[in-house]
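Components:
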Amino acid sequence: MMRPAPPWVRYAIAVAGVGLASLCIAAVRSVAHVANISLLYLLVVLWLAARYGRGPAILASALAFLAYDFFFIPPILTLTVNDPAEWLSLFALLATALVVGQATATVRERAQQAIASERLAVESQRAAEASQREALASQQRTATLYALAELIVRTPDQTQLLDALAARVVEVFASAGVRACALILPDERRQPTIAAVAPAGTPLACAFDLSDRTHAGWAAWILERGNAVGGRIGPRRNVQGSDAADASLAYYIPLRTSERRAVVGGLGITGTPEIRWLASLPPHASGESPRQVRADVAERQAQTELFGAFCTLLALALDRLALQREAIHVEALRESDQLKNALLGSVTHDLRTPLASIQAAVGSLLEPDIVWNDAERREFLDSIAVSADRLSRLVSNLLDLSRLEAGVAAPEKQWYPIGDVIAHVLDRLDLAGRTEGRRITVEVPDDLPLVPMDHAQIEQVLTNLIENALKYSPAESGIAIQARALSDPAALEVRVRDQGIGIPAHELGAIFDKFYRVQHIELPWAPRRPPIGTGLGLAICAAIVRAHGGRIWAESTPGVGSTFAFTLPMTEAAPQGQLPELATALDETTSDEPAPVGAADDLAHDTAHDTTPAAPTAKGASA
Amino acid sequence: MTDALQPAGANATGARVLVIDDEPEIQRAIRTRLSADFGVEGALTGHEGMELVARWHPDVVILDLSLPDLDGIEVVRQLRGWTQVPIIVLSVRADDSDKVTALELGADDYLTKPFSSKELMARVRVALRHATPATAGARPEARFETDGLVLDFERRRVSRDGTEIHLTPTEYAVLKYLATHAGKVITRRTLLQAVWGPEYVSEDHYLHVFIGQLRRKIEPDPTRPRYLLTEAGIGYRLRDPA
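Structure:
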C-alpha cells in the first residue's frame, strides 16, 4: 500500500486533471462537434474522488464548471453565458460532478476504513505479543541479575565467590556462545592476574593463560585502557578436539562499576563467534550472512544488555572484594604493628633489666676507690652471673621463636629414643646446677619404640617444661617425667609433673600464648620474689610440638601441682631390626687411635668387621 | 700473642693450650681462665692458628668453627693432616652437622656457646688426659675403671660395683671402643664404622636401640645413664674416670 499523497499534491493533481480534460475537449472540438463532451470532466472528477477522496473531487467539480463555461460556452473566454439552455447543461455538469464525486469518495473512505481497521488489528496483536515477550525477557533478566546479586551477597569467602561468579557467567551466557571465562584482577602493581576460571579444570578454561603474550597483552589492555578487546587467537596446544574451534576466539571486557569509574577488573570470555556481540565489538568478516544477523539482532540486543548489567554487578562484586582485602590488609598491618609494639616493649624491658644489673655490678666492682671484701665481690659476681644467664636465655628464646614463626626451623625429624633426649636434658640441667637437691624421677618403658622427631627441638621443649616445673614448685618436692606410647592414634606422650603451686583453671589455655605470664604469682617458699621468665618458654614449646604434628596441654590442681604433657605422632612404623651380633669380640686393633671416618672409608678396614658374619639383618630391615 | 694477661707462674701443669677464635672478648675470657692452670696462646685467624700449632706445639687446641679467613672445619682437616693434637671445637647452637663433621674429621670434643668456664675446664682436662698416651707413646692399659664400672681388657670382663655383667661380644666391643676413648665424644658414624664396618655407618636408629640394650645391662638406672652418656644429635661418650 502506497503512502497517501500530501493534500497539496492531491489538489494540484485535481487542477492538473481539469486542465488536461479541458485540453482534450478543446482538441476534440477543433476536429468535430461532439455532444456532451463535458462528460470528460466527470471522468476526471470520478477518478479524483476514487483516488484522492472528497476534497480534490469538489475542487475538480468547481474547476470543471468554470473551465467549461470559460473555454467552451459562447461567448468564449468570458464567464457570461448567452444561451439560457447552456446554463442548464453547465449546472447539470456541476451537480453530476459533485454527486458522483461525493459518492465515489464515500465508497473509497469506507474501503480505506476497512483496510485500516484490519491493519490496526494485526498491529495491535503484534504489539501485544512483543510486549509479552519483552516482559518475559525482562523478567528473566531481572531474575538472573537478582540471583547474581544474591550470590555476591551470600558468599563471604573471596575465592569461592570469584569461582562462583566465573561459573555463573558461563552458565547464563552459554546461549550467547560463551564456553569459558576468566575473571581478571589487577595485582598490587596493577598487573593482570587470573583470579578465577570457569569451567574450572577444563582445557577451554586453560586457554586463559597470561603467560601467553596475546592473552597477557589483552588483559593488560583492558586494565590500562578500559576498552574491550579481543579476537581470533592461535590454536592452543592444550585445547584439542571440538573445543579447539571454540577457543579460537577470546574477548576481554573491562569491568567497572560505572562508566566514569576506574576499571576494577576484567572478564575474559571464549566461545563461539557470537560472543563478540557481548563484547559490543563491531563484527568482523566471518561466515555469517547479513540476513542472519538481522534476524537475531533483537535477541542479541537483549543478551548484550543483560551482559552489560551482569558486568556492572561483577564489577561491584570485585570492587567490594578489593575493599574487603584492603580492610583486611590494613587490619593485619595494624595488628602486626600492635604485636610488634607489645613485643618490643616486653623485650626491651626484659633485655634492659638484666643488662642494667650487670652494668651496675660491674661498675661497682671496677670502682677505683673502693676495696670490696670477698663476700661483697661474690654478691656482685652472682648478680652478674644470674643476669647474664637470663639475657642469654632470653636471646635464644627470641631467636628460636622468630625462627619457628618464620617457618625456617621446620623440624628435621629422625628416629630417636625419647629416653635419650630426657636423659640428655637432665644431664645439662645437672651440669648447670639447676637440679641441685631435687628429686627427679624418669619413667620410660624399655620397649618404647623410636619416635620421629627433631631431637634438638624436643630437647628444648623438655628443657623448658622441666625448668618451669623446677621454678614453680618448692625445692623439696619431686618432679616426675613419664613417657608412654598411646594407641589410636599412635603417639608418644610425655608428661612432666610437678608438686608446685599449680595454675588457675581459667589461665590454663592462655599459658601457651606468647608473653603470657600467670597472673599474681607468689611462690610461698620465696615470698616477694616473683619468678623470672621471658613468657616465651611455653610459646616455643607449643610452636615446636605443633610443628611436629603433636598436641600440648596443661592440667593443674592449684595447691597440688601441674602436669604439662605433649604428644608426638607415631603414625609411621618404627624401623624394625637390629645391628648384627659380632661372632667374636673386637680384637686389639680397635684400641688403636681411630682413623677419621672420612679417611677410613677409602681404606680396607682392619676391624672386627672382617669377622662379622654376612648377616646384615639391619640392612635388610631398613631397605 | 703472649701478653700480660698470663699471670707469671700460673702454668701449673706445664700444658699448653692454643685458643683460635676471632672474638677478642671470648679470647680474653677463655685465656684468662685457662692461664690459671695452663700456658695459653691465642690466634684470631685460622692461618695464624695453624702456624702457632706448628711453631708452639700446644697440647690442646680450642678452635672456633666460624673464623673470618677460613672454615674451622677446614682447619681441623688441615691440622689432622700432620698432627694428632687434641682439638676442642667451639660452635653456636643448632649446627649439629658442623660439629659432627669436625668430630669425624678428627676433632676430639666440642663445646656449644654459651658455655660455662666449668665445662670448658672439664673438656680441656679430658683432652689433655686423652692426649697423654698418644704423645707419650703407646701405653696399653690392662683395665679401665670409672665410678664403679670396671672393664678388664685382659680377661674381657665387665663389672659394676664388684658384680660381673654379662655382655655379648658386640656389646663388649662397643663398650671397649668407648672406654679406650673415654671422655671423648664418639659420633654414631664413627662407632658404627669401628664396630660393625663401613656398610653400617648410616644405621643410626638401630644403634639407638642397641645402646638402649647395653645401658639396661650396665647402668643402675638406664633412664639416667651414669656411664654411657648421650651427646644428643652427635653420638656417645663414656664417662671419664676423673
